[in-house]
Specification:
- The protein has helices spanning about 35-50, 60-65, 75-90, 100-105, 120-130, 160-175, 270-285, 285-295, 315-320; strands at about 5, 10-15, 20-25, 30, 70-75, 140, 145, 180-185, 185-190, 200, 220, 225-230, 235-240, 240-245, 250, 255, 260-265, 300-305, 310-315.
- By secondary structure, the protein is an alpha+beta fold.
- Strands 2-3-8-9-12-17-18-19 form an eight-stranded antiparallel sheet. A three-stranded antiparallel sheet has the order 5-7-6, with no helix packed on it. The protein has a two-stranded antiparallel ribbon with strand order 1-4.
């Protein structure tokens, strides 16, 4: 279909960042959906070109390989994401860290092809020595970044969220008044559906273990809000009878122990929701819940209850976002 009638609901989709993206939007009269699709894909392709650790030609990979002592001019989007990442790193006391690339690779969750296994103590210490968000040095209002030697950024815990925000901004600039944008499970909604209601989304609520019963369905109203979910149900490996989650605690250099099955955060931007979902996962269900409550954050935790079941906890701010 090339054109849409007035006020019609249209759906678009594609691939990006090793996952899929989808957009539901209220199309204006005779909107060219093919052109909209192309603009969305172009926006997401820019994120990949700048922040993909799987593309050697990306800005983030070229920075990783840059000589020590060199300054790098960052694209505007890259600089914006790094600014948010540093803010969350500081506010979370390092539970979120955009420099843990060496640790991600060491544990086998990165793009280097390293097998997923528990590393030796010496290798772990070397990777930790190359990490640490306080090593980041910038100038020119954050648009230039110093490669001090061995600094390896990893923005995978925030880039998909930023992709949602970038697509939403692109759609607004093109005159789209209402849309629901999803990139790999991170979602943002703005405007109202034809029935006048806000967009509604179902919060993910299951674990990888099918023997564990699902939690009650939770539906969020996204009225100029975004939601992101993190947790240990994705990307795990077993060694000697013990599970290791893909979420690494930057403060210790090892995967989070007893990570929540899922942590969901609602925020004004998907970029912030994405980063904070990871930070709260690293903190753990108890400490993360207390932190979120103290900051007035909308967060929900689903964690093992010690008896083979699941326990759900949420902040008051999260509960207020639930659909009636």
């Amino acid at each position: 279909m090339e054109h849409a009638s007035a006020g019609s609901l249209a759906s678009l989709g594609g691939e990006t960042m090793g996952t899929r993206w989808s957009v539901r939007l209220i199309a204006p009269p005779r909107a060219d959906l093919h052109a909209l699709h192309a603009r969305i894909q172009q926006a997401l392709d820019r994120v990949v070109a700048q922040m993909s650790t799987w593309d050697d030609a990306s800005d983030i990979c070229r920075f990783r390989n840059a000589p020590a002592g060199t300054w790098w001019k960052l694209p505007e989007e890259f600089a914006r994401v790094l600014e948010c990442a540093i803010e969350v790193a500081g506010a979370s006391d390092g539970a979120f860290d955009p420099t843990l690339g060496p640790l991600v690779d060491l544990w086998g969750f990165g793009s280097t092809g390293t097998p997923r296994r528990v590393p030796g103590a010496d290798a772990l210490e070397q990777a930790r020595a190359r990490s640490g968000w306080t090593r980041i040095q910038r100038r020119d209002a954050g648009r230039e970044l110093l490669q001090p030697g061995g600094l390896q950024l990893d923005l995978s815990a925030i880039a998909k969220g930023f992709g949602v925000d970038l697509v939403a901004a692109q759609l607004r600039s093109l005159g789209i008044r209402a849309a629901l944008v999803e990139v790999g499970g991170e979602i943002g909604g703005f405007g109202r559906k034809p029935d006048g209601d806000a967009w509604r989304v179902l919060v993910e609520a299951t674990m990888a273990d099918a023997a564990v019963p699902e939690m009650p369905a939770r539906v969020l109203r996204l009225d100029d809000r975004a939601v992101a979910t993190s947790g240990d149900r994705w990307h795990r490996f077993d060694q000697d009878g013990r599970w290791y989650a893909h979420t690494i605690d930057p403060r210790s250099g090892v995967p989070v122990e007893d990570a929540a099955a899922s942590v969901t955060v609602v925020a004004t931007s998907a970029m912030e929701a994405d980063a904070w979902a990871t930070a709260l996962t690293v903190m753990g269900a108890a400490a993360g819940l207390e932190f979120a409550r103290n900051r007035g954050m909308a967060a929900r935790f689903v964690a093992a209850d010690g008896t083979g079941g699941l326990r759900e906890t949420m902040t008051g701010a999260f509960q207020s976002q639930l659909a009636a």
